[in-house]
Amino acid sequence: MEASPAVFYLIPGLGADERVFQFLRLRGEVHVLHWLPPQTPREPLLHYAARLAAAVPVAQACWLVGVSFGGVLALEVAQLRPLARVVLVSSFAGPAELPWVADLARATGLHHLLPPQLLPRLPRVAQWFFGVKNGSEYQLLRQILQDTDPGFTRWAIAQLVQWPGRTQAAAVRIHGTSDRLLPKGAARSQYRLPGGHLIIVSRAAEISRILNQLADAVPVEPA
Length: 223
Fold this sequence. Notes:
Layout: E1 7-11, E2 29-32, H1 45-53, E3 62-67, H2 69-80, E4 84-89, H3 100-108, H4 118-121, H5 123-130, H6 136-147, H7 150-162, E5 172-176, E6 191-193, H8 199-202, H9 204-217
Parallel strand pairs: 1-2, 1-3, 3-4, 4-5, 5-6
């Protein structure tokens, strides 16, 4: 009996959308899980993940591909969808992998004092942190930052710094060797690619190949 085509659910990073996936070339059925507005400024991450998981059928074997903060949600959605397999791209599995400033924010509440519009106002600083090149990559980053919803960013950062992690969860990890936002991630990843935090764009061809190979190696059997 022939295996069914792979099914991918893609979750973008904080403030990003389907534009970061535009260069992927995946064989199979592809869906983007779009961010939902938080129901309240204090909506718990697990409650939010349950709402996001509603778009993924319980009985469907699939791949959850999460980029950066999207990887956090992929790990949480997978807790509710046992047939899902997780791939983390430029992401992390627990607070020990975050930079020291996250520990400071968790202890002091510093993140509440920083305006979420800071990076959109400083696109060149954001360019350095994300490790993107001039030209089309930089223009894409600027557009994404300009379109970011400040309320969502504020909520997400608050959830991120308090997240206890899912360090025991099985996940395939892909990370850039020069990631300035999450520099510890490369050492914990099975696939290390040259580039910074936005390798989902700059290394889309390699990531597409990895994802397609993973899907081929673990085919989805028809029900």
